[in-house]
Amino acid sequence: MQPSATADSHPLVPPVIDVDTTPRAAIAARIDRLPITRHLWMLVFLVSLGGFFEVYDLIFTGYIAPGMAKSGLLQTTTHAFFGFTGIAGFIAATFAGLFIGTFGLGWTPDRYGRRAVFTVSLLWYSIGSAIMAFQTTPENLMLWRFITGIGVGVEIVTIDSYVTELVPQHMRGRAMAFNQCVMFAAAPVAAILSYWLVPTTVAGMDGWRIVVLAGSVGAVLVWFIRRAVPESPRWLAMHDRIEEGDRIVRAIEIIVARQSGRPLPPPPPVIEQPVHRRASLAELWEPPYRSRLIMLIVFNFCQAIGYYGFANWVPTLLIGQGITVTKSLLYSFIIAFALPIGPLLAMAFADRIQRKYLIVAGALVVIVCGLIFGQVKAALPLIALGVLISFAGQTISVCYHAYQAELFPTAVRCRANGIVYSASRVGAMMSGFLIAFLLRDFGVSGVFVGITACMLAVAISIGMFGPKTNGLRLEELNH
Known about the structure:
Blueprint: H1 23-32, H2 38-70, H3 87-104, H4 108-112, H5 114-132, H6 138-166, H7 172-184, H8 186-197, E1 201-202, E2 205-206, H9 207-225, H10 233-238, H11 242-260, H12 289-311, H13 314-320, H14 325-336, H15 338-346, H16 355-373, H17 379-406, H18 413-465, H19 474-477
Antiparallel strand pairs: 1-2
């Protein structure tokens, strides 16, 4: 076979490495030599648009909770620890669905492709969310919340691997920060819609139902926009679809070369990849992936309790500090603005400082600010501390989404991410019951003592056992 027939079709693009010699490795090497241009940012942006509505769905859980309680559909707390007629049960149903999506179906993007699963899961979420908005009993509400969560779970696993594989290694941290910025722009949108709509009714319909429907409609629109995103060339190469992967990379190279205005640098030395075969789950329990898997399972379980223990309960925690329902939603909206701004700021240092160190620092900030939050009553300090906690939480989020996707090979990246993510789904599912219990018996300060314990586990697991990843090629980390 000759080198790609299109090798000389653009004067700025050097000839492609002979695909007879290193077909899989050549595609990965060609991606890793790309300079950062508008086209690469646009690819990340389009993938992130799908994630916008997944985050919208997760974030509005806390904001619509007071509305569901006010309408009488759900209770704020229940007498039993595992009470399924309260807000905690609604949160649990969300993360139970996410668990099934990540653990049970996390292998599907590795089998069927990032692009195909991305599309199906986004449509799944949209339909399930629309049906959920019209439920009138706690049981049916929980059922459709669970079904919707499955689609969201698959989507999140797919997005992390998708972004990680589309960009060169010197862009991964910034690309994931940008991805998180776009996705978490949904937080203030969900907050302001909830502030406007949750206390009211629209055409006889409770306002919280309109908030749910808004996300469902938007996801359908993005489903059409997303069709412009190509399949992951790394995934195609791993599945011996070399010509398709070469064609996609070649198209990207031509656009990037034109936008950069100079010849592309030569690809770095190739790192041979194994011949594709169906990956076994048992392989993840062999070195070096076993220790990485265990570390990330512990990390995900604990960070989910700490992160969602605050994010999903912001309005309720503010009410517990003496703030009225309406003002708690307004203050939550202000705090929510930190969610997209945090990743935007992280773009300045995401590839400069080791991701593991940023995760540890973020956990320590959550601990300090959270303990103070539980003690103050004035509005301004509560808002300031809430913003700082959000900034720290988003720094953790930006870093670990890139970090755990880097630590596993392409053939099993989504499967491995699904397993470790499933631990966070269990943690998040338990967080609703745990926070409700701590809030009922120990107040807001008790809630943050629990969050502190979880964030200490986060700092220890990543700080002591996490490898360094910044600037290393995916193939180096998983050779």
